[in-house]
Every structure is written in structure tokens, then in C-alpha cells.
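Note on ligand handling. Small-molecule inputs were canonicalized before submission; formal charges were left as drawn, and no protonation-state enumeration was performed. Where a ligand contained multiple stereocentres, the stereochemistry in the source SMILES was retained. For zinc ion, this procedure yielded the string shown in the input block below.
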Amino acid sequence: MNRCSRRALLRGVALLPLAATVADGLITPTNDRYFPSHGTYAHHTISYDLKLAYDPDSGSLQGRAHIKAVANRRLESVELDLARLTAHSARIDGNTVRARQHKGKLLLEAPYPLAQGAPFTVDVSYGGRPRPVRSPFGPIGWDRTGDPHDGTLVASQPLGAPSWFPCNDRPDDKAAFTFQVSVPHGHHALANGTLRERRRNGRWECWTYHHPGPMAPYLAALYTGRFSHDADNLNLGAAGSPIALHNAYPARLAEPARHDLARQPDMLRAFSNYFGDYPFEAYGAVVVDAELAAPVENQTLSVFGSNHIDGRRGWETLVAHEIAHQWYGNSVSLRNWRDIWLNEGFATYAEWLWSEHIGEDSADQIARQEWRSLHRRHQDLRIADPGHRHIFDDRIYTRGACTLHALRRAIGDHRFFGMLRTWHQTHRGASADTTAFINHADRWATHPIKPLLHSWLYEKPLPPGLS
Ligand SMILES: [Zn+2]
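Structure output:
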């Protein structure tokens, strides 16, 4: 640890003036974000109330979004993200307003200037045939599933949310969500949170879900189609009430999926011990009838591809990974995508903790293997600021987890797990960044820990110490 010189610390700070300003409580300048064309700091959202009707025959979606928000400064217009769908009409505070769409933005003229701090409402009627949005990571967001294409999925991380509803698409603009989704009778609709009502109306059925969140738009999710669905209540032994646990799969995958997901309750219990109380009222996994590059940790409802089910728990580390994201990534979310190691390093370390928990390789053994693997790779990535095209580089995941393991070795198990639990407790339902994490970890150390963390997070060469 002493090998991490003062020079390393200063170089890290010199390269990250932005992180320092955020830590000082200043707002990140828009042009300094990784994806500045998504989201706005002009307002923040309180709630989204989405009424959706999806017709699988035509692939068309009709939507009405009722959004409650607060102006962060005086506003003469309201900016939302909406991609590849058409806004038919819009109202602000009940007044019909002019709407303009351009390059994934929906711009609404306010009927009168909205004062800084003033709450306001937006209603948008919209529709069309939703399709994935283009991104540096390929097409993401809404897509169709199954053969024939009578199902749909949402996998939005990081920029796909505007493919199905108008939103303020920032990872740190978190809100409550209600979904009322009409699909043909015989189809399911699955969304974040808990099912409040299921109502038949002729050949249609309306499914209502509510999630108090708060939740970032990219973690909102909707799945429609034909599923086998299992539901149960799970008591995690904490003071709170039991959580609703539910899984859904295409009927042909139900048996292997039940086997592959069977240890979710054990994972939720183990992680509640490591990280503190489970942060939400529900959890579930949905397996879609399509292959996915990777599972996605939608809030309370992770999604897996059919290729992640093999009946032999061959992908169980990812089952653990997505559950861990409910604490780290979803409950504590990012201020900026540059900090994504706070999601992926933590969830990857949870995979190692799960391995240790079930008596397989210890986190220490896995960390040493991963360090050796990283040592053979190019060392050209600054994991706490990798550049917007590299936020899903696998080195973010493994070096991020190695960073946590280096910290665990430096401060000892007792302080390390106390640090993990209080990181969640402190930022639960909010957003955080790397500077806040370094300061938090430093408070749990008995000796200076910042040089160690700076060398792991901001220096490109791999620090020694885990081999
Ligand atoms: Zn992840």
C-alpha cells in the first residue's frame, strides 16, 4: 500500500478536476457528462405514471405519460427524451402546449415561465412502433421477442429508456413509477415493483404495477408476451415486511429456469447480511424468449436471455451479480456514467462473495486469479473515468472488484463490511460518485487509504499487491 506514492495521488486529482467539483456539491456541467445529449439538469422528476397499450399483431404502442416534476431553474420550455415514437399532443399544468421533436428530444413550450423550485405536470400522448435506439453499444431499449414476434422486452442500460416513454434520461434523476399496461388477454405484462391490479376488459387485460423507487429511467422495464410465472413471498429475516419474489419464463424454459434461479432466496439472504437490508419491496427475474448479450439489472426485475438458462446453473454468477446490483447500481445509483465501476466492480465482487459463501473459491483466490489475468492485459484504462465508449469494458468489472478486495485486505474484514453496509445506508435511494466513495472508505480506515484507492481507480498501470 505504501507503494502508492503521493505522486500517484496528485496525478489522480490533477486528472479529475470534475470529481473534485462534484464532491464540493457543485452541479456537473452538462458538457462534461458522458452522454450529454440524454437528460437535462433543468428539472428533476418526482413521478412517472405511464398508461400503455401494446398490440402484438401490429407491434404498435400507444402511450400516455403523466409526469410530475420540479423546475431546477426558471423554465420557458421543458425538455424530455423520446426516440422513434411520435408525440401526438402535450400539456403542461393542464394547458395544451406546442411540442417539437428533434434528434431524440421532445421540446415543450411552457404556457408561462415556470419558476425555479415550482412543481409542474406534463402530459404527453404518444405512440408508434417502438424500436431500439442506436447507441455506441449497439441497439438498446425496447425490442420484440419470440417466434412469432408476439412478445416484447426492455433492456435499456444505459440509453434505451426513451425508446418507450418520454423521460429525463439521466442515471441520477430518480422517480416513482406507475405502469398501467393493456395487452391482449392471455398475454402477461411484467414491470418494476409489485402488481396492484389485473383487470379484464373484453379481449384486453390491464396490468397495473407500482414502484415507489426512486428509480432511474434506464432501470424501468416492461415485458409482454406469454410466460410461466411463479410468485412467492420471501422473509429475509430483517425488520421489514417480506418481499414479493417472482420469476417468469417462456413455458419451454420453465423447468431449467426454475432450477437455475432456485438459489435466489439464498443469495438475497446472504447479500442482506453482507450489504444490509434489501432495499426494495420486490425482486424477480424474467427470462425472455430471445438471446441477450448480457443480463440487465432492471430495478426489482432483472432480465436474462434464453441463452443464460442451461439447467445446470452455468450462469449462476450472473444471477448473483444482478441481485447485488439492487443495492449497488439501483438503490445507490450513479451521478455520471463515468463512475460505472461503482456498479460493476461491486456486483462483480458480490459474485466472488457468493462463491466464498457457498464454499467454492474464496474472494481472495478469485481476486488473485483476476489480478494475474489483468496483469497480462493492456493497462490503458482508467477505471473510474474510462471514457464513454468503454463503460462496459470487462476490466471495469474485474479491476473494480479487485479494488474492493485490495481495500478489504488493507482495512480488514470487520471494517470492510461495515464500510460496504454504510455506503448503501448513506446513499440509499440517491446517487453517488467515486470521490464520495473514496472519502467514505477513508473514514473506515485506521491509516491513510486514499493513495491505495487512487492507484487502483485513477492510475492506468495495475497496482501490485494481489498476486
Ligand atoms: Zn453488472
